[in-house]
Design goal:
Radius of gyration: 17 Å
Largest sheet: 2 strands, antiparallel
Order of helices and strands: HHEE
Shape: extended
Strand order of the largest sheet: 1-2
Structural class: alpha+beta
Strand content: 15-25%
Length: about 80
């Protein structure tokens, strides 16, 4: 079973690009503007669930916790 899973996983592309140019000098003054550019780009390229994200934190003992969230608003 694990050989079959590994074979299937190796067939998937990862970070195949091409990616937009990244120039720190040309970033917008507000991070929300950049996020909206990325969200529009994801939607134009048919990314499934582009508003889903993983939020990871650690508790007071240093143990990580992560959860998947759906973005509903930007302030």
């Amino acid at each position: 079973m694990s050989d079959q899973a590994e074979e299937l996983l190796h067939q998937l592309n990862s970070l195949s690009g091409p990616f937009p140019a990244w120039n720190l000098e040309q970033l917008p003054g507000r991070p929300g503007e950049l996020f909206l550019d990325w969200l529009r780009l994801a939607m134009e390229n048919n990314v499934k669930e582009p508003h889903a994200m993983t939020l990871a934190t650690v508790d007071q003992h240093g143990y990580p916790e992560a959860r998947v969230l759906i973005l509903k608003a930007i302030m």
